[in-house]
Amino acid sequence: RMGDIWGIPFSTLASFVLTSLVIEVTPGPNMTYLALVAASDGRRAGFVTVGGITLGLALIGVVAGVGVAEAIQASDTLYAILRWAGVAFLLYLAWDGWRSPAATEPHRDGEDGKYFLRGLLTNLLNPKAGVFYIAVLPTFMTPQSSPVPQAMLLTAIYVGVATLAHGSIVLLAGTLEPLLNDPRREKVVRRVLSALLALVALWFAWVTAPT
Question: Alpha-carbon distance 173 to 183, whole Å?
Answer without folding.
Answer: 17
